[in-house]
Write a structure and sequence with these properties.
163 residues, alpha/beta, Rossmann fold, 15% strand, elongated
Amino acid sequence: MSLKDGGGKGKIVLAEGTFDLLHYGHIYYLTNAKKAGGENSKLIVIVARDKTVEKLKGRKPIIPEDQRRAIVESLKVVDEAILGYEDMDMGKVIEKIRPDIIALGYDKREIEEYLKKYVRERNLNIEVIRIGKFGDKEPSSSSSIRKKIIEEYQSQSNLNRNE
């Protein structure tokens, strides 16, 4: 049984990400991904495995994969969150979930091109879209949150040393 079984009620939207240090940009992305599916859509989120994050970003995530998945699934807008494949095979994900729409984050240009080509070559009826960035206010990414924490910590450490 695929996740698409269910009487053809609404579109299935697939979103993906690391979701380490969850922030408003993640909420904006997931909310707009679900909206892209229209009324009665189902949002399924693939949460990157720890090993995948390490391969792609050169560092381990702060929050372990099982906790990141549980946090994402607890969001009201998310219908289901599942861990991705360690081999990062989006083909397997597409085959398992059979989405109508794949919604990517604003910074996922490379994967967008890959997925559009994948869908076109297999003549699949899947729309691949990118959700825009929510704004320019910082912190707007997990990396900028990490940077801000380090800056604040260093600033406090320097103040404490000077007392």
